[in-house]
Every structure is written in C-alpha cells, then in structure tokens.
Design a protein that fits this description.
This protein is of the alpha/beta class. It is built from eleven helices and seven strands. The chain folds into two domains: 3-184, Alpha-Beta Complex (2-enoyl-CoA Hydratase, Chain A, domain 1); 187-242, Lyase 2-enoyl-coa Hydratase, Chain  A, domain 2 (Orthogonal Bundle), CATH 1.10.12.10. The chain has helices at residues 3-18, 40-47, 55-78, 94-99, 128-136, 139-148, 154-160, 170-185, 189-204, 207-221, 225-235; strands at 25-28, 83-87, 90-92, 104-108, 112-114, 152-153, 165-167. The longest helix is centred in the N-terminal third of the chain and has 24 residues, at 55-78. Bound molecules: ligand LH2PNOKW. It comes from Oreochromis aureus. Pathway: Lipid metabolism; fatty acid beta-oxidation.
Length: 248
C-alpha cells in the first residue's frame, strides 16, 4: 500500500459510488499475496516526516495525515454498493483495516491475517481497532490479535466470523466472489443499497434508532417500482434476478 494506493482508492470508490452502472464491487489482490500492508519505506519517508516548527503544528499535521489515510478505507464503507473482498495469501497490517471496512469477506485456504501494527510500534489507526470488534464479536480474540500480532489462519478466520467462506485456491475464490457479486447485482439496487446503508447504520446505533432510521428510509424507498417487480417475481415463483431494475 504505497502513497498512490492510499489516494487512488479514494478516487476509485468515490467514482464507483456515483456510477449507476456499478451495483457491486469485488476487491482482490494481484501477485503472491493479498497485501503486505503499508509500504514501510513510504511510511517513514512521508507520513512520519514532521512538517511544521513546533509540537502543536507538527501534531496537527500528523493528525491531518492520519485522517486522510483513514478515509482510504472509510470510502469503502460509505460506498452504497456492497463490497466483496477476496483475500489470498497474507493480509497484513493495513490490509486488516481495509477488509474490515468491506461487506463480505472471502479467503483462500492459504490465507492468513495479521494485525501487525503493534510490531512496528504503533496502535493501528486506520480502522482495525474500531471495526474488527464489530466484525468478529469476541473482544478477547480482537485484543489477543491486536496486542500480540499473532497470525490468524483461514480456518480460525472462518470460525471467528472474519470471513464467511474459505475456498481451496484463488481461482475457486474468484469464481465464488463473482458468483456472489452476480447474485447481488441481479437484485433491485434500491433494495441492495438500502440494505447496506441500514446494516451499517444499525451496527453503529441502538435497535430503536435503527428501526426509526429504516422506517424513515423506507417511507420513500417503498414507493419504488422495484418492489412491485420483485413481488411479482416472487408470486410467479421466479428469482428476483429474472426482472430488470433501472439503474440507481
Ligand atoms: C500511520 C499510518 C497508518 C497506517 C498504518 C499501517 C500499518 C501497517 O500496515 S503495519 C504492517 C506493515 N507491513 C509489514 O510489516 C509487513 C512486513 N513484511 C512481511 O511480513 C513479509 O514481507 C510478507 C509476509 C508480507 C511477505 O513475506 P515473503 O517472505 O513472501 O517476502 P519477503 O522476502 O519478506 O518480502 C519481499 C520484499 O518485499 C519487502 N516488503 C515486504 N513488506 C513490505 C512493506 N510492508 N513495506 C515495504 N517493503 C516490504 C521486503 O522487505 C522484501 O524486500 P527485499 O528484501 O528488497 O526483496
């Protein structure tokens, strides 16, 4: 994850968010592993280079840089299109921050995950500590992973709920990821995007607030033609994917 990655991800996801042709996103890694995390040379040469001439100004500048880096993964969560991430080999450091901002996580049998930040002398600051506890439920396991930087392998990632499916190899995983993406893309974008937005809202709020939010959301979204089309398909015992839904 070099400096180009950190800024291009923001441009990319902002464009995907606005692109009505796009209904779902699949993120995967090229090469022998998914990600080695932040480019350590870049980090030392840019993020950590102090700018300013006193503590307050240097600190202010570092905070700005961290907030900017956080946005690289927050854009994934803010994107209304569901994001499926397919992980093979290693997923280290900021890789874990990134995948916890995605909606569906898949991996290969050879995948492993490492909350590596403590090993390089910092508290993870781009999402893992905030999102991982909401993803895997066990605070004790999160604490263990984050405080010891031990590797977690595919089987434990599955049993802990970090990933929902494990595939034999990358080829099988990509086929599986595209199949899931196809299932999502074939359904009403009004229903799909409303579901993602409300799931994230519900995760961050009380049940009562979540129920109120969805009521307000659906007071307009239930007026969509997609509902009639999907209900018609259900009555005819057809998949909702057999209907055509307008772009959103
Ligand atoms: C404050 C900002 C907010 C963001 C914070 C983010 C934090 C993080 O991401 S913490 C994690 C940082 N990453 C690491 O510490 C990974 C270190 N690397 C490894 O553990 C291994 O290299 C890895 C398991 C990824 C791959 O192992 P493998 O045996 O397959 O390859 P290597 O021979 O170790 O590596 C090949 C060359 O790549 C260089 N390299 C690996 N990772 C990084 C990296 N993150 N940044 C820069 N360079 C990296 C490695 O040094 C080798 O280089 P060379 O010796 O020149 O061939």
């Amino acid at each position: 994850m070099n400096s180009a990655f950190w800024s291009e991800m923001v441009t990319c996801f902002n464009e995907l968010s606005e692109d009505a042709q796009c209904r779902v996103v699949v993120v995967s890694g090229a090469g022998k592993l998914f990600t080695a995390g932040i480019d350590l040379m870049d980090m030392m040469n840019s993020v950590l280079q102090p700018e300013g001439d006193d503590t307050a100004r240097i600190s202010w500048g570092i905070k700005k840089k961290i907030k900017k880096l956080q946005e690289t993964f927050s854009v994934i969560e803010k994107c209304p299109k569901p994001v499926v991430v397919a992980i093979h080999g290693a997923c280290v450091g900021a890789g874990v921050d990134m995948i916890t901002a995605c909606d569906i996580r898949l991996c290969t049998q050879d995948a492993w995950f490492q909350v590596k930040e403590v090993d390089i002398g910092l508290a993870a600051d781009v999402g893992t500590l905030q999102r991982l506890p909401k993803v895997i439920g066990s605070q004790s396991l999160v604490n263990e992973l984050a405080l010891t930087a031990r590797k977690m392998y595919a089987d434990e990632a599955k049993s802990s709920g970090l990933v929902s499916r494990v595939f034999a190899d990358k080829e099988a995983m990509m086929a599986g990821a595209l199949e899931i993406a196809g299932e999502i893309a074939g359904r009403s974008p009004v229903a799909v995007q409303g579901t993602k937005i409300n799931l994230i809202y519900a995760r961050n709020h009380s049940v009562a607030d979540g129920l109120d939010y969805i009521a307000t959301w659906n007071m307009s979204m239930l007026q969509t033609e997609d509902l009639m089309k999907s209900a018609q398909a259900a009555l005819e015992k057809k998949s909702p994917k057999t209907m055509t839904y307008s772009k959103l």
